[in-house]
UniProtKB/TrEMBL annotation:
This is Uncharacterized protein.
Length: 242
């Protein structure tokens, strides 16, 4: 594991905000809930996955969280811009909105993007179709929007607001915004194996998508700590740890 520490002090009280980067060769060691036996059962192999993450502590209050998101965006942008291999990738926001009232015309009108756009500016996002899906008797609208790395901070703000329903995926595929691909992502993310109902199964996304060259982002936080972790095939590790 490698670390780079960036100490940031916000002059309000004595609490320090600290951020650092980590890279781990084995994602199954990084995430305790990644299980090799389960991976083999679900995809017929143990995929070689690695992790790069930007971490933060002392994130008390909205202002520090916003600063941390900007740090995350900057660190990830540097990697994607620096490495020629990663220039072939497009970033995608994967969004899922549950319909609370099946008979609500407003919910069915807003679907995904009108709801998200009421809070964040998405003019620079290339929005895909909004697909109605159902899992465990609950109706969702799901969609994917492509965006450039320059708009990463906005996407991070969105996924940090509800990582159970929003995430980011990077891919070189040219059909990610198709109805077929959106449905496929939803079926993987909200599958019967997930441990928590109605939450994105990041393990499932990683073991299904990363072996095919895709990259899965995961936002995690608790109290005053947070991280954005990026899971990818191990043969890409040098691009994230250089």
């Amino acid at each position: 594991m490698t670390q780079m520490e960036i100490i940031m002090i916000i002059k309000k009280g004595v609490v320090k905000m600290k951020t650092w980067n980590e890279s781990e060769k084995d994602a199954f060691s990084y995430f305790q809930w990644f299980n090799k036996d389960e991976a083999f059962e679900r995809v017929g192999m143990n995929p070689n996955l690695s992790v790069f993450s930007v971490n933060g502590s002392g994130l008390f209050g909205t202002s520090k969280k916003n600063v941390f998101i900007e740090v995350c965006s900057s660190e990830i942008q540097k990697i994607f811009i620096k490495e020629n291999f990663l220039k072939d990738y497009m970033l995608y926001l994967f969004a899922n909105v549950e319909v609370k009232d099946r008979n609500s015309r407003i919910e069915r009108y807003k679907k995904v993007w009108k709801l998200v756009q009421s809070k964040w500016q998405l003019n620079e996002f290339n929005k895909g179709p909004e697909i109605e899906t159902e899992i465990d008797g609950k109706i969702f609208f799901s969609s994917i929007a492509g965006f450039k790395v320059e708009n990463l901070s906005t996407a991070l703000q969105i996924i940090s607001s509800n990582p159970k329903r929003y995430t980011i995926i990077a891919s070189k595929k040219d059909d990610v915004l198709s109805e077929k691909m959106i449905t496929n992502f939803f079926e993987i993310a909200f599958n019967q194996h997930r441990s928590r109902i109605d939450e994105i199964d990041y393990f499932g996304l990683a073991i299904h998508l990363c072996s095919d060259g895709d990259v899965v982002f995961r936002w995690g936080d608790s109290a005053e700590e947070a991280e954005i972790a990026i899971v990818f095939s191990r043969d890409m590790l040098t691009f994230f740890s250089s």
